[in-house]
Amino acid sequence: MATVDNGVAIKLRGNPDHPYSRGELCPKVNNFLDRVYHPDRIHHPLVRTGRKGEGKFRQATWDEALGVVAYRVKSIVAEHGGEAIYPWWDAGTQGAVQMSSLDRRFFANLGASQLTGSVCGATARAGLATTYGSGLSADPTDVRFAKFVVLWATNTRLTNRHLWPFVEEARRNGAQVVVIDPIKTITAGSADWHIQPLPGTDVALMLATAHILIRDDLVDRDYVGTYANGFDDYAAHVAAWTPARAASTCGLEAEEIERFAHAYGTIKPAFIRTLIGAEHHEQGAMFFRALATLPVLTGGWRQRGGGLSRSVGSWFDGQINDSVFSVPSPTRSLSMNHLGRNLSDPAIGIHALFVWNGNPLVTIPNADLIRQGLEREDLFTVVSEQFLTDTARYADVIFPATTELEQLDVIPAWGHLYLGWNEPAIAPVGEAVPNTELWRRLAKAMGMTDPEFALDDEALVSKVLVDTNVDLLRKQGWLRLDLPDELLPYSEGQFATRDGRADLFSDPVPHYQAAIEGPGGELAREFPLVLLTPKNQTRFLNSSYAAHHAEKEPGPYFEIDAGDANARGIVDGDQVRVWNDRGELYLTAKISARLRPGVSAIPFGWTVQAAHANALTNDTLTDWGGGVAYFDTLVEVAKAG
Ligand SMILES: Nc1nc2c(c(=O)[nH]1)N[C@H]1C(S)=C(S)[C@@H](COP(=O)(O)OP(=O)(O)OC[C@H]3O[C@@H](n4cnc5c(=O)[nH]c(N)nc54)[C@H](O)[C@@H]3O)O[C@H]1N2
Ligand SMILES: Nc1nc2c(c(=O)[nH]1)N[C@H]1C(S)=C(S)[C@@H](COP(=O)(O)OP(=O)(O)OC[C@H]3O[C@@H](n4cnc5c(=O)[nH]c(N)nc54)[C@H](O)[C@@H]3O)O[C@H]1N2
Ligand SMILES: [Mo]
After folding, report:
1. What residue's CA is closest to ligand 2, atom 12?
2. By mean pLDDT, which of 76-90, 345-359, 444-458, 520-534 is the weakest?
3. Is 399 helix (H, G, I), strand (E, B) or coil?
């Protein structure tokens, strides 16, 4: 909620009536007005004058900038065909129509390549869907009804802090909280029990848990018999996954696995909460497929506070239908995660790149290859941004983008079940425009006349909203999805599979053991440390806010276990060189008790100048869902100089 005086927003606060955030703004946005009025905000279209990446631009009029883009794009299409154009976008604005709407018509008209893949969520959804038929899971806030809470590969206190009070509520009512994470995060530090497996080995832990549940008769036979397929094959498969075998795969004690499985199978309701961290592995989707079998075995889904909860984004699909903007197009698809490979491969032949809602040079893996691509003199790059990000520095033309305070949208959520209405509180700063307006202006400059480009943002918003009381949503600012108060999606089966039953084992789906071959082989001898690069900054949202909040965050740094450091003659505070076959970084070493031997970490989000984690990360795609294996990265480190 913004207080506006004479057209200027002077105060921003959370809405105390909002049932989820309860009026609390997180540290990322409670200084959001500083961002809106920041002197570094891009106020006008810019045209590059310096070298690519140098960051030198001159101000241009909208007409000039649009003219340059229209001219270049027309000649590229004429010479190389539409597929030489690569649109790249992510979730910089969380809103439905500013995320993606008119852009689809614009690029389809050009015959551009299409963007596929995802950095966030699609792999988890795909994995869950192999077991449940869809990505739907429990309401995260139902964690408050649980007696056993498993925070599995999620750093709730840092990344999802509005959920933490609900976890505390469960705890006040007697719940035990266990965190399963290869890093002793602040969340793990606040838990009753921290299980610390080696990265990428969780599927073995899940299969051994299933092994114990079956062996010790802790399975809800009635639930499984009525609502699941493949139990016998699954049981035969996990028979080989003894606690001892999983213990050696995961680097845990068999006794701890026994204890975990017993707690999970006997304390009810038992609630599993997971988010995105675990999907950033080559077998990322398999994590979610295997995880999904556990509350089926125990019949946990029967009870409120049981079951499993990931992102609730899939629940919004019923009320926000952005497929209304889809335009069928016969052109090829390019992965958003292979930006570096695609830009640097002449056979792919990209000649124009459009970037909005994202900062891929910082957020996408194998960044050095991306940089090399962006440096190409024969690549024409257009970026829409609020700030001169590392990616924007390589643009030929930059268009100024509005912030959430200046644009209309409807906002889905991934952590709760409330739709948000985003009413513009102030006029656009400078000559900035919402993304939708950029596509309208570009379409006009290119001579496109489709009727969709005549729709204003209100019309676009009402187009995506399905069966929603828009007046109430707008008046109140939020509206719970039209779902029962008690959300028990699978209490009586009702899985979204063909026969309504959960799939525990079936032949078209690769069998579970595929998931536990972590990074290894030849490369592991040369680069013996696993590198994790999860979020570990309270004031950034990925790379957003990094340039302006960096001085308040400790970092970036290279975290390493004391034994691993010792073996290399590294002491706390040393300058070190961290490298692998993709790149190198110079960082300060931080001897850390958060890590196991063999595992290292760099926090993600810092700018390129400050040394950013994705210079080193793996761009292998995940098993399903088009995600990418950031966290299956290997490195070596030595004292610098
Ligand atoms: N402060 C802050 N909050 C944020 C963000 C931010 O940048 N800063 N980003 C937002 C976004 S876009 C997202 S998607 C969410 C993500 O929210 P989370 O999914 O909670 O966060 P991540 O840091 O991606 O990963 C969570 C944890 O997974 C662990 N992990 C990695 N590999 C494995 C594994 O193999 N097994 C197990 N058991 N654990 C593993 C990591 O060590 C990490 O602690 O956070 C959101 N919230
Ligand atoms: N190593 C490593 N890499 C990761 C992750 C990790 O844990 N480790 N996490 C991954 C995850 S989960 C995610 S979600 C991605 C996020 O990756 P990105 O989506 O690239 O996220 P941001 O860095 O937040 O960049 C968003 C940009 O959009 C701009 N923006 C915001 N609103 C608007 C708007 O309305 N219009 C326009 N034109 N621009 C706007 C912001 O100024 C900002 O520069 O990063 C991924 N990368
Ligand atoms: Mo994300």
Report:
1. 120
2. 520-534
3. strand
Q: Is the CB of 595 under 6 A from ligand 1?
A: no
Chain CA centroid to CA 401, Å: 22
Give long-range contacts, CB 8 A cutoff, 24+ apart: 322-325. Answer: 322/96, 322/97, 322/99, 322/100, 322/101, 322/464, 324/463, 324/464, 325/100, 325/101, 325/102, 325/104, 325/105, 325/463, 325/464
Atom of ligand 2 nearest to the CA of 95: 35
With a CB cutoff of 8 Å and minimum separation 6, the contacts of 439 are 101, 102, 103, 105, 106, 453
- Does position 253 have pLDDT exceeding 80, yes or no? yes
CA-nearest residue for atom 25, ligand 1, is 277
The CA 165 to ligand 2 mean position distance, Å, reads: 26
Q: Whose CA is closest to atom 18 on ligand 1? A: 154
- Going by alpha carbons, the residue nearest to atom 46 of ligand 1 is 159
Q: Would you say domain 2-116+337-480 falls under CATH 1.10.10.10?
A: no
What is the number of the ligand closest to the CA of 415?
A: 1
Give the whole-angstrom CA distance, residue 322 versus residue 191.
Answer: 39
Domain locations along the chain: 2-116+337-480, 123-310, 520-639
Encode burial over 184-194: b for 16+ CB neighbours within 10 A, e otherwise: bbbbbebbeeb
pLDDT value of residue 380 = 98
CA of 220 to the centre of ligand 3 (A): 35
Cα(117) to ligand 3 centroid in Å equals 13
pLDDT tens for 496-532 read 999 999 999 997 777 775 444 445 577 888 999 999 9
Ligand 1 geometric centre to CA of 277 (Å): 4
CATH code for the domain defined by 520-639: 2.40.40.20
Q: Which ligand is nearest to the CA of 178?
A: 1
Distance CA 338, CA 2 (A): 39
Per-residue model confidence (pLDDT) at position 520: 58
- C-alpha radius of gyration, the chain, whole number: 25
Query: What is the architecture, at CATH level 2, of domain 123-310?
Result: 3-Layer(aba) Sandwich (3.40)
* pTM, full prediction: 0.96
